[in-house]
Amino acid sequence: xxxxxxxxxxxxxxxxxxxxxxxxxxxxxxxxxxxxxxxxxxxxxxxxxxxxxxxxxxxxxxxxxxxxxxxxxxxxxxxxxxxxxxxxxxxxxxxxxxxxxxxxxxxxxxxxxxxxxxxxxxxxxxxxxxxxxxxxxxxxxxxxxxxxxxxxxxxxxxxxxxxxxxxxxxxxxxxxxxxxxxxxxxxxxxxxxxxxxxxxxxxxxxxxxxxxxxxxxxxxxxxxxxxxxxxxxxxxxxxxxxxxxxxxxxxxxxxxxxxxxxxxxxxxxxxxxxxxxxxxxxxxxxxxxxxxxxxxxxxxxxxxxxxxxxxxxxxxxxxxxxxxxxxxxxxxxxxxxxxxxxxxx
Length: 345
Hints:
Helix 6 (141-152) crosses helix 11 (268-285) and helix 7 (171-192) crosses helix 10. The chain has 12 helices and 12 strands. The longest helix is centred in the middle third of the chain and has 22 residues, at 171-192. Strands 8-9-11-10 form a 4-stranded antiparallel sheet. The chain has a domain at 141-169 and 253-324: NADH Oxidase, CATH 3.40.109.10. It is an alpha+beta fold and 345 residues long. The N and C termini lie far apart (45 Å). This is Nitroreductase. It comes from Desulfosudis oleivorans (strain DSM 6200 / JCM 39069 / Hxd3). Residues 17-46, 50-79 form the 4Fe-4S ferredoxin-type domain. GO terms for molecular function: iron-sulfur cluster binding; metal ion binding; oxidoreductase activity.
């Protein structure tokens, strides 16, 4: 009974999405490998292939590999589904993922055929992707301020505007933040991951399991830090910490840390998220790329450094945005889970 409890909480039995490659179309360019945030792809024998360093539980089905592939050689089939236990989600989704269908009368038509009927805002929303590949080209300060200005005009509870921005263009400072966050996160992976997986340079046994004390701690963390220890989240954090060359902020030329005043009205986290999304949409409309990176919260372990950055004790780190010029065409439409709507008429 106890073993079954730990299994369903810490290592649930799940069905996973599948990476399917059309080998005739694949030219081995490696774009999908570079775009995968979880490092679960590689080029082998001149073709894209799954990386066998771990088991495949880390795929978050973001489909950036699909969006990035210039030859449309990749399809992601299926979805992450857990049938029982703490992480059960099979009852939450129906009918699988579909491409955007904003005009119901034309549902099923290729997006390109309806794109011309959409507003510019809609087009940016449907095509925006998280960008993790940036050119070294700097972003002009005027453009950074333009993106932040879009955030400034986001709605907030009581028009309280709890946000504050730390805009960093100094590469040495961004690299220092990266190093400090990785050190913080490494402590977490020591608790949350099989130790055979902690070092990229020492490929781990794909069948490795948590030891007894990790099982005890994880059962508690699942209840109090649920989103941070979800199985795929654990894998994502380990991707960052196990590879000494992995840069949390993707060597982007600009990093914007989003803060919220703890003394604000209502849900300061929600308001700051709305603010950030305004910034994301504005950036992509300008041809820039962005990626949300909440791992920046690892700075919480360095109060003196936080103060050096201008983060006062009254402010909470909510998340951060990388900003820069995309190295390749990544913004594109991909399939998403269908909306869960309860109509009341």
